[in-house]
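Why do we bother with a discrete structure alphabet at all? Because it lets us treat a fold like text: something you can write down, compare, and reason about line by line. To make this less abstract, here is a complete entry for DUF1972 domain-containing protein. Read it the way you would read a sentence in a foreign language you are learning: slowly, and without expecting to understand everything at once.
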Amino acid sequence: MTTFDIESFEAMAESETKTLHVAMIGTRGVPAAYGGFETAVEEVGRRLVERGHRVTVYCRNADTSIKTHLGMELVHLPAVKKRSLETLSHTAISVLHAMKQRPDAAILFNAGNAPFIGWLKAAGIPSAVHMDGLEWKRAKWAGLGAKYYKRAERVAARSGLALIADAQGIADYLKAEYGRDSHLIAYGAPIMDPGSEKLAELNLEPGMYHLVVARMEPENHVDVIVEGYAGSGSDLPLVVVGTAPYGDEYMSRVRETAGDSDTRFLGGVWDQDLLNQLYANCRSYLHGHSVGGTNPSLLRAMGCSAPVTAYAVDFNTEVTGGNARFFASAEDVSVAIKIDDHDAANCRARGAAGRDRARTAYRWDDVASKYEALLSKVAAD
């Protein structure tokens, strides 16, 4: 009969990473086609699967026939198709489903989903909350919506669950506002050389246009960028990619601001190869986001060597590591565009420096390792 030291066996087992069943709750799900949360779920989830973990992603995709994606198990559940209720209704049903599945750990994305933290606790599901950016500052939630998001943020911060911040500025805010430490886990950046052959479809030439990629919302300052471009007298067109998901009033204002300048509104570009080529070949990429922490569009632009001109807020200075021009007004945009129009070599150098920053500081493998360590700790605790 073989004998063994039980304490040595336990120590050996603990030295290895335990295989976990992880639930990702609160996003639109995968395949990623919408925003930062979805990209994070896809990139982190696929790597967790590769490392032997089981990952369940709760989705509200149109195509419910997709049951797995990159090894992740997809659970498609309905949602109320109304802006103020869509996320909450879907998360509520997702949490109820997870309570039956009993995963080893869960990540609840978006502090706005805080009402369901109590459900996860009651079910004994170890969880962490990804706090996102300062959602209550977004114009689309003005009034009661802003009050709700601020209150939900407070509930999440005081829940006792592990908190995830995707930028140092968010981590600093949580510490100052609520006295809570958080786990700083940013997004990763895709490093790409996508070519330029598709630009001809849009009658564009490499290096001969400026670019904006953003949802048409006030806190993304597309109106400021367009106004600055219109006042710059640039001979290069400004290409604007993005939709107005919650109404056309802001978009109408942006179009008015463009006047008779060569501003080209493409709407949503869903061809990812084309979008990557737009990033990679622009004279400059103008990034106006101001409230969302580490922004995936900015990282994607940097990974494609796009020369960045960004809105002057701490999140953007942190991500770019200073390898960018910055603006706070339309006049600043005009100056930046004029300089870049006459110094293509400097633009290329700025783009290369930004790419190096993205390659070293924002690696998806490192991001996944941080999530894996956090989930293991949450499950063990």
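What the structure line is telling us, in plain words: The radius of gyration is 22 Å. Residues 6-188+363-380 form a domain with the Rossmann fold fold (CATH 3.40.50.2000).
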